[in-house]
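Appendix C reproduces, verbatim, an entry submitted by the partner laboratory led by Prof. M.T., so that reviewers can inspect both the input and the predicted structure.
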Amino acid sequence: MKTNFVISSDMKKIQMVDLKGQYNKIKQDVDNSVLEVLDSTAFINGPRVHGFQKNLENYLGVKHVIPCANGTDALQIAMMGLGLEPGDEVITADFTFAATVEVIALLRLTPVLVDVDPVTFNIDVEAIKNAITPKTKAIVPVHLFGMCANMEAIMQIAEQHNLFVIEDNAQAIGATYRYSDGRKAKAGTIGHVASTSFFPSKNLGCYGDGGAIFTNDDDLAHTIRGIVNHGMYVRYHHDVVGVNSRLDSVQAAVLDIKLKRLDEYNAARQKAANAYNKAFSGQDHIITPSRQKSCSEVCENCDCHVFHQYTLRVLNTDRDALVKHLNDNGIPCGVYYPIPLHLQKAYMDERYNEADFKITNQLVKEVISLPMHTELDDEQITFITSTVINFINS
């Protein structure tokens, strides 16, 4: 059944991510802070970087935040800090962005890709168990689209097999994980070490590139602080093999302002997600995003999912034709991700069996991500959802 919705002449242009609208609301604070950095000329490792680091540690409840140049560096440096050696196997999800497996390969480690859960899209716990060999040294759960992987089960597996857990938290900063006994922890603070990205479109994004590593391990934090700065703890004394990966003061100034609003930003995303869910309720060919089971029974606004992306599964539908239909109607959308990692030319391996990637191979045909950001309004969401429903039911 089609619904009729007429776009008003004054409806804002729909953006996949509305960074300009968000900036306009914090413009004075951002401009003043950036000008202060320029005036200070403390562009690298200045007071703004250290201040942001401390504020993020307090927000997350983690002992150590080590800022760096971008999220991919953060993940690579986390692995370097653990002392993983060429040939060590690292298990991660097949359904995610390539950066996760990219850094494993760059370090001459052996990526082991496994399938994901059809409900959460996060790494499948049983698939992890089946993939462990004597060469396995680490697991990299990706908190995809804004919701934590099953960290309680993953940490239990890691403890049983003496494995490191490296959380890829690029998409879920601010999300809360709830244990079966009611305890809570912020995403990125549960594993041995975690990485995040401050790419502009992230829930906490800067105005360039940026990233950070989190850990509660004092010794590991010390090692990582050397790695990000050419392996130096004392100038011109290179104690470990390092890289040049530092967050600059301008980006730290922007991030510090936005960190104060992160919970507000995530709440706006959750509100938009709830509006999407309500509009799509009862649509047999649409599966809306899940929340952590222990949260979904409590309230709609639990922070277990912070909706970096709002990703649907569309069933018995030409997904690519839907993408074109939305674009033709002025609605941007995304397909994250159209090709599984195990089928990417760079990461193909004869070890892989297609039968082991049943869920991922299905998801890449069905997923579509709709606009999701802090500035979405009810009129835009109504137009987006009506356009989707009209296509699917036509």
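The first helix runs from residue 19 to 40. Additional entries are available on request from the coordinating office.
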